[in-house]
Structures are given as structure tokens and as C-alpha cells.
Amino acid sequence: MPRVSQDQLAARRHEILAGARACFARYGYEGATVRRLEEETGLSRGAIFHHFRDKDSLFLAVAADDAAEMAVTVAQYGLVQVMRNLADNPDVAGWLGTQLEVGRRLRTEPEFAEQWAERSGAIAAATRDRLERQRDAGVLRDDVPVATLQRFLELAYDGLVKHLAMGRPTDDLGPVLDLVEAAVRKPQ
User: Fold this and answer.
1) Could you give the C-alpha distances from 126 to 10, 70, 76, 121, 167, in angstroms and in order?
2) pLDDT digit string (tens) for 18-40?
3) How far apart (Å, rounded) are the C-alpha atoms in residues 129 and 134?
4) What are the angstrom distances between the C-alpha of 167 and each of 28, 96, 153?
5) Of 3, 138, 155, whose CA–CA distance to 80 is shortest?
6) Are 25 and 96 contacting, i.e. CB atoms less than 8 angstroms apart?
7) Sign of dihedral through CA atoms 91, 93, 95, 101?
């Protein structure tokens, strides 16, 4: 039997995560049945669960990847850019579906909340670090503590997620996000 390289395994894992992300976004966690996961990924359950112990571990891997990507975006461009990406196309990244399921599980599953604390902490740290760098560069307003600006941006993000979850229009969000960004910047 031929050996599979690490690159091939990584590529297959990435393929499974992309299909699962789309499936979770479309059907939610409960609706993302194994059959639907097979259809979305184009792989058998054996191939999927060779890489992931079960559906829960697959979802956690999707959510962890999304959180890591979000932390990188926040560190480079700020939380407002994450909001812009989400508002511009909430379904492409699948982040909305992941965020909604994570939020549900945080409220209802203490074990999940405990596991998720590290990931949400990484996003919060990236936000705080970015705000501190912006303040040091003289771009950020200095009359409000960084912790308050961070909380403001997190609340704006949470509000955007709720707005999108309710199916509200996204075509007019650019000026709103401009206002959110202007609110944390130093007045010119």
C-alpha cells in the first residue's frame, strides 16, 4: 500500500474543513448530518473520520481554524476589518455559521466554554495588541482606555453577527463600519 505524505494529509484535512465549514454554515451543527458532510466534502465518512474523531471534533477544528484566521486578521488589520469581511460576504467564509454555533454552545455547554476560552482569549489579545500598537503610533484616540475601546469593538462585532443572523440587509453597512472605525481613531 502506498504511503501518504504529510502534504497530502494536510491537503485532505484542509479539504474536509472547507466542506464541513460550508455544511455547518448552511445547515447548522444539528443539521450537518454525516450524510450532508459526505456530500459537501465529496468524501466518505471513513475518509472524514480518519482525520477527525467525530462530528464534534470536526466542528471544533472548523471553529478553531476560523478563530485562528480571525486572530491573524485582527493582528494585521484590526477587528473592524473582520467586520467588513463578514459584512461583505457572510456566507463565503462560513464564519457566521461558526460564530452562531459557538455562541450557542458558550451559553449552553460549560465544558465547551472552558475549552473555547483560550481561543477567544487569542482574539481578544490580538485586538488589544493591535489597539495598543495603534495608540503608540498616534492613530488611536487617547482619551479612552484601550480596554474600553476593545470592549466597544467587540460589542460592535457581536451586534454585526446578530444583524447578519437575523437576515438583515448588508448593503448599507459600509458607512456604519466607517463610523465604528472613526469612533476609535484620534480626531483629525
Assistant:
1) 26, 9, 9, 8, 29
2) 999 989 888 888 899 999 999 99
3) 9
4) 15, 11, 21
5) 155
6) yes
7) positive
User: Grid coordinates representing 25?
Assistant: 454554515
Residue 181 and residue 80 in contact, taking contact as beta carbons nearer than 8 Å: yes
Task: Report d(CA 78, CA 53) in Å as an integer.
Answer: 34
Confidence of residue 46 (pLDDT cuts 50, 70, 90): very high
Percent of the chain with pLDDT over 70: 96
- Beta carbons within 10 angstroms of residue 90's beta carbon: 20
Q: What is the amino acid identity at position 80?
A: V
> 29 near 106, Cβ under 8 Å?
no
Give the three-state DSSP class for 5.
coil
Q: What is the DSSP string of the chain?
A: -PPPPHHHHHHHHHHHHHHHHHHHHHHHHHH--HHHHHHHHTS-HHHHHHHSSSHHHHHHHHHHHHHHHHHHHHHHH-HHHHHHHHHH-TTTS-HHHHHHHHHHHHHH-HHHHHHHHHHHHHHHHHHHHHHHHHHHTT-B-SSS-HHHHHHHHHHHHHHHHHHHHTT---TTHHHHHHHHHHHHBPP-
Which residue would you say has higher pLDDT here, 63 or 95? 63
